[in-house]
Amino acid sequence: MVRLRSILLFLVLFESFGSIIAEEEEQIEQFSEALLLRPLPDRKVLAHFHFESKVPPTRTHGSHHHLFPKSIYQLVHKFRVREMELSFTQGRWNYGRWGGYDPISSRNAKPPGVELWATFDVPQHQVDTSWRNLTHALSGLFCASINFLESSTAYSAPLWSFKSFAANIRYGTLPREAVCTENLTPWLKLLPCRDKAGLSALMDRPSIYRGFYHSQRLHLVSNEFDLAAASSGMVLAQTLTVVLQPVTLGSGMTSSVGSIQQPSWSLSSLFGRKVSGSCVLSNASNVYVQLEPNLVSELKTISETQQQSDIENLISQAWSDMSFEMSHSAVREIKEVYGFQKESSLLYEFSLANFSDSRPFDLEFRWKRPVTWSSQLAPLQASRFLMGSGNERGAIAISLKSVGRSGYAKSSVNEEGRCSLRVDVFQVVPWYVKVYYHTLKVFLDERLHSLADVIERTNVSPSEDKVSPGLIEIALRLPCDVHSVILTLEFDKGFLHIDEYPPDANQGFDIPSALIRFPEIKTKMHLFEDKSACKSPILSKLQEESPVLWYTEVLLVPLTTPDFSMPYNVITITCTVFALYFGSLLNALRRRVEEEERLLKTTKASGLIGVLLSKLSTKLRGKPLEPPSSSSSSSSKVSYKLILRVILVAGIAAAWQYFFG
């Protein structure tokens, strides 16, 4: 009996000790790092870095942190930021080749330049002040021109495009902001190990910035100010998405059908460096290699036709060994449980726990046969262009074309049993592009339709000259079998003051990218839910549902530009005329006659010796003596010339003042 009591007491103590450890783990800071590599159909490689830092709420953990960046913590508490996203992007995401229906493209494909949006936990009348202060702080923190977004003409207040019916949200973008290493270095300083250890050590500046696409993103979520709910503190996610052209490790092979083999690559060939182990402060450091669903289907089809084996055997490693090989064996293979496509994607996980400086990690991926496939696309491909000519009027057109897959909208069926597709359009235009919103037209399959038949709701905020930009949000309800949709809006081009033109005014003015959103079509990876998957933040993020997003091109609008050389020409000729006029006038007024006569007499007295010497020299040379010229005649000529010059300059100045003054 005593023995049974002791066993029960031990079990109770063990459970209580385990619960205490679990609570302590929830109340400590956490940091994790991961890298996802994906071969792309156009012979490129996608590298997606994911760093996540978590900190418990201040009221339970205090304000002193070991891993979470102090600068971000101060921003949150000083400006009461509830959620914020900042991205620096160079290049444009190729939705047609790199995919548009997956979690990576929906969350990390951003418009060129700088994009910033934030929500604040402040009263409505203090939102603009908090936004201005936040832009100045982020500008100094990331060495960028984010402070240009403080002007009321540079930001807007969307209603539902980013956060559903968020009242305290502000959005701004700088399409022409240049992204360079000065922006990446402060971003890396927010990491506990910076770029000295772990996966961040792979971020070689020349390797990253010579890529086809580069986007560094910072997403912050904080609920410390929500006292009613159970607060989870702050979560800071830093992602870097790069599309690189790998240096071919082996000679390129060509199959009999003419398809070129994908280039083999390794970490050292992509980034010029190897990974010398994980960051000692990270809870998890993993590298993932992802194969898209279409690629997995193509590899299985090729292996099935050549080996004539059944599907069950193809799911094993036999088909992968015939198509490609990797230098390291994966810790585990993660396969989707089910998905929208007939095939699901595949993830290979590699851990950096057993690697160090003496044994660095350099994953090599080598293809054995040519393979061609295509990435998953969004239900509608979006593009935007300008119509019209001249510097007075024009029109903006947004085109949506179907990819021929009606299965995307299977769940979007209305009460009448008709299949429909919900599409949200978000567009911000500068104040000098004066859009006439009543000219909105919608064409379905090249036929004009009534706005009441296709538009569910709109949010329009007209622009005000030199005060605020124009904003339009449109919620469209389209039939699933639609092939093409075109939206047009007419506008007039405004006039700017000469001080409002940028240095490169003749290049044109940018209209920021429009955002196309499919709120009813969610994308996520259906991974097998085990404890290890839940511990990996990047896998948890891939399993979260997110709507499909598509950013259009940045439009370049030419405006009426004055001839900036004319002010320079006017200034130079005016200064020249006034210099001649006042110079001659001052010379005539300040000349002293008595001193000139005294100087003339002294020259006459001293000139007798010179005359005798000249006569002697002429006699010795045998030449006739020339009579000296009278000084009076020369002085009269000089005075006449001076008077004529003064009169001429005065006449030119008077005529200039009369005609151009």
UniProtKB/TrEMBL annotation:
Signal peptide: 1-22
Protein name: GPI transamidase component PIG-T
Keyword rRNA-binding: no
Pfam families assigned: Gpi16 (PF04113)
Top-level taxon of the source organism: Eukaryota
Residue intervals passing through the bilayer: 568-589, 642-660
Alphabetized UniProt keyword annotations: Membrane, Signal, Transmembrane, Transmembrane helix
